[in-house]
């Protein structure tokens, strides 16, 4: 992994400082002073605007996801005492914390939090760049920058018309208006859209009648549309407007989870590196990069998938850091999350004060890939004929888990299923064999499985717990998110502030009034 020259700083030291300051100040200052201080965070920059601006958003990523990745990497050193290996971006010289609540709830969604970051306003769940009443549109920072002559890039490993990328080019009452969002992409004058595919490209779920495929519209509007590795790698700053889709899409038009990506397949890092080539020009550029599958992994309570995608997110950020190293006086890199997802905790009642991150190394695929294995089993097996024994070899291969009768049980006792865990798997398999419409979605079922494949999510829960990790929800949480920055104006991102201030700080640095 790329190593920064800056002095190493653990995420834990930052959190500790913030907590100590909070406790000390809370004992001596009245609440209204806190509110005043929070509202008056420094959003004013008086220097020269940078040419190269990168905004990285780890969707669903907060302190737990970052810490889990760092602990996982540290555990791979197999030291006698606990050790972490810091992700490079956590050593950026400026560190802050941003609140994530929106106008509806302390637990926001990606549309509302994305709007706060891109456009600087609080709005409601599901709304893309509109006020909470859905009456007025607001412009994301990208439109102002485009008017100023900057090239604009939007990259995501989930569908490019998903909520987070959408807030940087669209205005919609609902994030689910996929076709309408994609139309705004196709009709934009932005320069580089890349990564995942397009949801509802043909407008089958749109209220618009006689809808035309947005890919065809994009081509008519001058976009160079590419979807093979060779075509993508051949792109450069003479390619014009680009819409580049990953050659392999795994689930719901998204790129594969990093742990499922095959050798030679394009990664998020590859799309960032290529974006730097495509956007290169004398005036400069702004690139937003989202790692959306961190969020998807945590929704599904798949800790290993989250960790691997967080590590790849770090790798993608380091592609931008190479630009900073070359042009330190002309570059700004900001890294943050939009909200936390899953309620990931480092700690589990069954493991008390211990963690066993090395157990997660035994997981070889994401829950999505195991869903595919289970789907094949269901095709050839009648529900009344199912038995856990049929699928135990696949479980061992995918998650490392085994029963006490397995030939490797004595060599790897830490991965042997307890009687209670085995019973949970047998019950989950029975649920998975049922048609969805026949399942009992009681409150208890929702807690056990959410909306996921019962057997797959039970397997991730069991392995997570054996590693000393746990999740509290299949949804988002109200945790604040960290913010890291390096480059021109980095000092503005130090401290505690609202997520709308991220926009305000960027706007000031870019001299947007």
Automatic annotation (TrEMBL):
UniProt EC number? 3.1.3.1
Which CDD domains does the entry mention?
Answer: ALP
InterPro entries, per this entry? Alkaline_phosphatase, Alkaline_phosphatase_AS, Alkaline_phosphatase_core_sf
Q: What class of enzyme is it?
A: hydrolase
Q: Name one GO molecular function term.
A: alkaline phosphatase activity
The regions listed as transmembrane in this protein's record are none
Cofactor, free-text remark: Binds 2 Zn(2+) ions.
Q: In its keyword annotation, does this UniProt entry include Metal-binding?
A: yes
UniProt entry keywords in alphabetical sequence? Hydrolase, Magnesium, Metal-binding, Phosphoprotein, Zinc
**What is an example of a Pfam family matching this protein?**
Alk_phosphatase
List required co-factors. Zn(2+); Mg(2+)
User: Which PANTHER family has this protein been placed in?
Assistant: ALKALINE PHOSPHATASE
Q: Per the similarity annotation, which family is this?
A: Belongs to the alkaline phosphatase family.
The protein in question is named Alkaline phosphatase 4
Record organism: Clostridium formicaceticum
């Amino acid at each position: 992994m790329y190593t920064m020259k800056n002095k190493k700083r653990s995420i834990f030291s930052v959190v500790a400082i913030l907590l100590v300051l909070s406790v000390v100040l809370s004992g001596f200052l009245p609440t209204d002073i806190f509110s005043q201080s929070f509202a008056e965070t420094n959003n004013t920059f008086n220097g020269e605007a940078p040419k190269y601006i990168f905004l990285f958003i780890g969707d669903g990523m907060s302190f737990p996801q970052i810490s889990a990745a760092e602990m996982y990497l540290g555990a791979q050193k197999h030291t006698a005492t606990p050790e972490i290996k810091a992700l490079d971006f956590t050593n950026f010289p400026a560190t802050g914390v941003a609140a994530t609540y929106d106008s509806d709830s302390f637990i926001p969604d990606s549309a509302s939090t994305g709007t706060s970051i891109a456009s600087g306003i609080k709005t409601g769940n599901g709304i893309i760049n509109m006020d909470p009443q859905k009456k007025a549109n607001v412009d994301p920072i990208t439109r102002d920058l485009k008017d100023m002559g900057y090239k604009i890039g939007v990259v995501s490993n989930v569908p490019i018309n998903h909520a987070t990328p959408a807030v940087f080019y669209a205005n919609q009452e609902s994030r689910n208006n996929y076709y309408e969002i994609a139309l705004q992409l196709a009709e934009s004058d932005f320069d580089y859209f890349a990564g995942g595919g397009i949801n509802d490209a043909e407008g089958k779920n749109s209220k618009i009648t006689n809808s035309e495929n947005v890919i065809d519209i994009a081509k008519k509007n001058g976009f160079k549309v590419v979807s093979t590795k060779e075509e993508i790698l051949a792109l450069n700053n003479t390619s014009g407007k680009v819409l580049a889709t990953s050659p392999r899409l795994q689930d719901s038009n998204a790129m594969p989870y990093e742990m499922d990506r095959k050798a030679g397949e394009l990664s998020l890092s590859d799309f960032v590196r290529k974006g730097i080539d495509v956007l290169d020009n004398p005036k400069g550029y702004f690139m937003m990069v989202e790692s959306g599958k961190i969020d998807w992994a945590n929704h599904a309570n798949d800790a290993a998938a989250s960790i691997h995608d967080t590590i790849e997110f770090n790798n993608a950020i380091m592609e931008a850091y190479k630009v900073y190293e070359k042009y330190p006086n002309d570059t700004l890199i900001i890294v943050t999350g939009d909200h936390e997802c899953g309620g990931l905790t480092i700690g589990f009642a069954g493991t008390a004060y211990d963690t066993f991150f090395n157990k997660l190394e035994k997981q070889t695929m994401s829950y999505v890939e195991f869903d595919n294995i289970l789907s094949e089993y269901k095709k050839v097996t009648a529900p009344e004929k199912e038995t856990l024994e049929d699928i135990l070899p696949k479980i061992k291969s995918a998650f490392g888990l085994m029963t006490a009768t397995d030939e490797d049980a004595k060599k790897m006792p830490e991965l042997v299923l307890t009687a209670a865990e085995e019973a949970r798997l047998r019950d989950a398999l029975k649920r998975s064999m049922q048609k969805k419409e026949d399942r009992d979605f009681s409150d208890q079922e929702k807690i056990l499985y959410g909306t996921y494949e019962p057997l797959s999510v039970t397997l991730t829960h069991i392995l997570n717990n054996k590693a000393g990790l746990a999740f509290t929800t299949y949804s988002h949480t109200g945790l604040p998110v960290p913010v890291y920055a390096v480059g021109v104006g980095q000092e503005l991102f130090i401290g505690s502030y609202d997520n709308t201030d991220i926009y305000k700080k960027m706007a000031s640095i870019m001299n947007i009034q």
